[in-house]
Amino acid sequence: MNIISLTVWTLENNCFIIYAAMIVCFIAFTMFHKNRMEAHYSRTAAKKKFAPTGGGRERDYPNDEDDPDFLVPAIPEDTPHIPYIPLRRSDEEILQRSREYYELMAKRRTVRSFSTEPIPQEVLDNIVRTAGTSPSGAHTEPWTFIVVQDQETKAAIRSIVEEEEDLNYSKRMSRQWVTDLKPFATTATKPYLSDAPALILVFRQTHSWREDGRKRMHYYSEISVAIAAGILLAAIQYCGLVALTSTPLNCNSRLRDLLSRPVNERLELLLPVGRPHSEATVPDIARKPLEEIMIKV
């Protein structure tokens, strides 16, 4: 009987003992690994708990029970509440205004060809002020709007975006994504970034800092900034200007450095803003009807 035959015979006649031994080994290994993982997490938690507050990395989500000083609201706790008395309108007026506003916003289109005619500074101030009226989590207002009108800075932004977009279109984006963009005639070349009289870059603050130097948390910062961006687009449309909703992929850190923004800010949107070029065109597309976007309960 050779070695292979002996091995097969042993396995066949002692399978119960072998399977039992394998199960015992598996259980032992699992318990050993579990104990090691628990020890590792205990050491990690201890390091975080006793880490020095001066030089170490600050915890992203501080444990309020560890330090009551963290329990400071974003706005003063004694902020007074005042009566809210908006202008009372009749049902007929509400209906008329809703219809007029819909008709105005239904004309909003993304434009990729801009006139170089400048925009009055006060207009830009007012549309950003309007965006700043947006609601935000715990009234933390986690947004920064950078308005760029300097031609050299616009050219530098365009250079960064086009360099990254060339890589996006050729390597990073899926073939389906590039195919879906073809009807809109978009390419890695972005002339509107230097043609538009103003660029508004919307940065999201992941957090900010309290007066005592500790981190001030921003809640729902992504949706808060998204709502503010929507209000900004509505304000641009209302005053008779146009914009392009640009989300430059992989440009965040380079544009943040170019504009000297801190590391707690992240670029979410880049909006060229201005008047449309006299020969501007847009795709002849339709929006979903109300029945497809609204469900009545």
Automatic annotation (TrEMBL):
Superkingdom of origin organism: Eukaryota
A GO molecular function annotation here is: ribonucleotide binding
- Please give one Pfam family short name: Nitroreductase
Domain Nitroreductase residues, every copy: 106-275
Q: Which CDD domains match?
A: iodotyrosine_dehalogenase
Ranges in coiled-coil conformation:
none
Residue intervals passing through the bilayer: 16-33, 223-244
UniProt cofactor(s): FMN
Q: Does the keyword Membrane apply?
A: yes
Gene Ontology cellular-component terms listed: plasma membrane
Q: Which UniProt keywords apply?
A: Flavoprotein, FMN, Membrane, Oxidoreductase, Transmembrane, Transmembrane helix
What's a BP term from Gene Ontology annotated to this protein? tyrosine metabolic process
Family membership: Belongs to the nitroreductase family.
**What protein am I looking at?**
Iodotyrosine dehalogenase 1
Query: Could you tell me which species this protein originates from?
Result: Papilio xuthus
As recorded in Swiss-Prot or TrEMBL, the protein's gene is named LOC106117188
